[in-house]
Design a protein that fits this description.
The complex is a heterodimer of chains A (232) and B (459). By secondary structure, chain A is an alpha/beta fold. Chain A has one domain (7-231): Rossmann fold, CATH 3.40.50.300. Chain A contains seven helices and ten strands. Chain A has a six-stranded mixed beta sheet with strand order 6-7-8-3-9-10. A four-stranded antiparallel beta sheet of chain A has the order 2-1-4-5, with helices on one face. In chain A, helix 4 (122-135) packs across helix 5 (151-163) and helix 5 (151-163) runs parallel beside helix 6 (181-198). The longest helix of chain A is centred in the last third of the chain and has 18 residues, at 181-198. By secondary structure, chain B is of the alpha+beta class. In chain B, 49% of the residues lie in helices and 15% in strands. In chain B, strands 1, 2, 3, 4, 5, 6, 7, 8, 9, 10, 11, 12 and 13 form a 13-stranded mixed beta sheet that branches. In chain B, helix 10 crosses helix 11. The chains are: A alpha/beta (232), B alpha+beta (459). At the A-B interface, helix 2 and helix 3 of A face helix 1 and helix 11 of B.
């Protein structure tokens, strides 16, 4: 496997085995892949295929049973929990299906939240948050709280929150799963634009082939194995 | 995360759940107020008993009396056992005690007896005391009239507030306790005749009946009238007829003036109460009845007392009684504090419960924060700060409430029944914060251990 400077994710023979009583469930059954800088990758699969498990591994939320995962030059399969948190803080952005904005904060504060975890001062991080919100087209909603925004707007805040860190890689877990088809289109276009304009690497998990079609590259997963991997 | 951001976030999540926060804080308010009020009541009792001790005489005072010679026949009994004056109290003894560690003040006390007459009234004084002016002043007396005598003045008396009740009408032979009427004597301004040689006075009284001639000549028969002296009054001490103090029944004066007076009265005859040589003649120097010793700190009273006893003197103080009393009031305080502590314990459980609930509710939020890279320690801190904040606000309000309740108690009881000592404010506040954090510790650990995967589970 050739590994150039442009590779940001490298996974090799990754296994994840859950025990359910006597039974062993192989959620991931030997997955290897590489993702380069600036790629917009969709991991596609049905429910239970192991796509979410793979995302958890790649994002450093969970550890593989076996195999190695190198992200931005760091082996994350060896890190303890505190190390993983630090790793995510410094290298990873995350977009959730149900947005997961904090209801007590307004848009700016929500976007600035990960920066506050880095110890950035309020002034600096709020300015950066405003910039990120402009990028996603929410400059008119800076002081709105999540309850006062539509699903699409909330997801834009979620995207801004992932962007604001300028992370090496952004993971998105069914980012349009809770949205109607028109808003889904808008959000996907936004993500696609950001990947191009900001040279951002983005890995998205979805069960929907149509949505996966927006990505530059589709990795199809079935029963814990990669069954197809092709560029647009 | 910056400390400011942690604080802001904690306060924001408390404000988000306003009603629950207020109720939890209310629990702490009641708990802290209960403890502070109970301790204030204990302190009030403590002060009351301390005041009582102060009234009954100084709490740092040791009274030294002459030692018993028979007790001194131990190691150097041969030398001292034979000397009847060895353990008597002389000026040298006073100097020796003055030189001891922790002694603030030492004054000889010379007791005298006298009969005081005013018009048809007369009173016998048994334990009149002459002390150095510095020792008299040390007693913190308050005067109803007059003041201490001045240095170098001829003899003047200070009367206790109940001495007046000792005067009897010599014609009817009735006193205050027979008639219930206070003798009509102005101790400050009327002329008071004092007879020091009481033995001679009573002898002459018995031999010559009730009538006494005003002046007596010298060298008359043994039953002759002793001489009367006019001793002015320096002051009368504070207190009504029912107020009993250590000084109430006594007459006090400057010891130097007293010595001069007694020398004048008795000339070459022995002064009553003083030791005499085998031939009946007096010693050259005076011996004292006791020595009044003031110690610098209450804790040093008992060691000094022990040292003096070991030297063979009799040394008494209220230290034992006081320490017993203190122990008693400490026990009372502990008991009262314990009652308050139960209330605070309940409040602490309330805090822990609120925090646990909050964590279950915020499982997802905590997960999101973890996914976004919030440090585990920061998450723990956020919850600890919330709990500490509940403790802090509850503590401040609780202390405020205690002041209110104590003011009400004092107003109703018309006395200082509940006293909040100054140290209790910061202590109670620190304790409230500590209890809050202790109650929040387990929940915060729980929050730290929550899985970040909870954030991406979609319900």
């Amino acid at each position: 496997m050739a590994e150039g400077n442009h590779t940001v994710i490298r996974a090799k023979d990754v296994y994840k085995i859950f025990r359910l009583g006597q039974e062993k469930v192989r959620a991931l059954n030997g997955v290897s892949l590489q993702i380069g800088v600036g790629e917009f990758v969709a991991i596609v699969g049905t429910s239970g295929s192991g796509k979410s498990t793979l995302l958890n591994m790649l994002a450093g939320l969970d550890k593989p049973t076996r195999g190695e995962i190198v992200i931005a030059g760091r082996h994350i399969e060896k890190m303890n929990e505190a190390g993983l948190v630090k790793f995510r803080r410094e290298h990873v952005g995350f977009i959730f299906q149900s947005y997961n904005l904090l209801p007590q904060f307004d848009a700016v504060e929500n976007v600035a939240l990960p920066l506050s975890f880095r110890g950035v001062s309020r002034e600096v991080r709020n300015a950066q948050a405003v910039e990120a919100l402009k990028l996603v087209g929410l400059e008119k909603y800076l002081k709105h709280h999540p309850m006062e925004m539509s699903g699409g707007q909330q997801q834009r805040v979620g995207i801004a929150r992932a962007l604001v860190l300028k992370p090496e890689i952004i993971f998105a877990d069914e980012p349009t799963g809770n949205l109607d088809s028109k808003t889904t289109k808008d959000i996907l276009k936004l993500m696609w634009r950001l990947v191009w304009e900001e040279k951002q690497t983005l890995v998205m998990v979805t069960h929907d082939n149509k949505i996966a079609g927006y990505a530059d590259r589709q990795i199809r997963i079935l029963d814990g194995k990669i069954v197809a991997d092709h560029y647009k | 995360m910056r400390a400011v951001d942690k604080m802001r976030m904690s306060v924001q999540s408390l404000l988000k759940r306003r009603l629950r926060t207020v109720l939890t804080i209310l629990g702490v308010v009641i708990g802290i107020a209960a403890i502070v009020i109970m301790m204030a009541l204990g302190e009030g009792m403590n002060r009351a008993s301390m005041d009582m001790i102060e009234q009954y005489g100084g709490i740092r005072t040791v009274t030294v009396r002459e030692g018993n010679n028979n007790a001194q026949t131990g190691t150097d009994g041969g030398k001292k056992g034979g000397d009847p004056l060895a353990l008597k109290l002389s000026d040298e003894t006073v100097e020796m005690i003055r030189g001891m560690e922790h002694v603030e003040l030492a004054s000889p006390v010379l007791e005298f007896q006298a009969v005081i007459k005013s018009g048809q009234y007369e009173a016998s004084v048994w334990g009149g005391q002459g002390m150095e002016l510095s020792a008299l002043r040390d007693k913190n007396w308050k005067f109803k009239d007059g003041d201490f005598p001045k240095e170098g003045e001829p003899l003047k008396f200070i009367y206790g507030n109940q001495v007046l009740m000792d005067f009897r009408n010599s014609k009817t032979n009735q006193g205050y306790y027979d008639t219930g009427v206070m003798p009509d004597i102005d101790l400050m301004n009327s002329t008071l005749f004092t007879i020091f040689d009481t033995d001679a006075y009573y002898q002459s009284k018995n031999s010559s009946g009730a009538q006494l001639p005003e002046e007596i000549g010298e060298g008359e028969a043994p039953a002759a009238q002793p001489k009367k002296y006019i001793i002015p009054t320096a002051g009368v001490l504070q207190g009504g007829e029912d107020d009993y103090y250590e000084y109430s029944w006594s007459v006090y004066c400057d010891i130097e003036a007293l010595k001069n007076q007694l020398k004048k009265v008795y000339k070459n005859k022995p002064i009553p109460g003083q030791p005499v040589k085998t031939n009946g003649s007096p010693y050259k120097k005076l011996y004292y009845n006791s020595i009044y010793v003031k110690v610098d700190e209450i804790d040093n009273v008992q060691p000094l007392q022990q040292m003096l006893s070991d030297m063979g003197y009799q040394a008494d103080s209220d230290a034992e009684w006081i320490s017993q009393m203190q122990e008693q009031s400490r026990a009372q305080q502990a008991m009262l504090g314990g009652i308050g502590a139960v209330a605070l314990l309940v409040a602490a459980i309330g805090i822990a419960n609120t925090m646990m609930m909050s964590i279950y509710e915020r499982t997802k939020e905590i997960g999101v924060m973890k996914v976004l890279g919030c440090d585990l320690k920061d998450i723990r801190d956020l919850f600890l700060i919330e709990a500490a904040f509940i403790g802090f606000v509850g503590g401040v309000l609780g202390i405020g409430m205690s002041y209110g309740v104590c003011a009400i108690i004092n107003a109703i009881s018309k006395a200082q029944t509940a006293i909040i000592p100054l140290w209790l404010d910061p202590a109670a506040l620190a304790f409230a914060v500590f209890v809050g954090m202790a109650a929040g510790f387990m929940p915060s650990k729980r929050a730290m251990a929550l899985s970040p995967l909870a954030a991406i589970r979609n319900e």
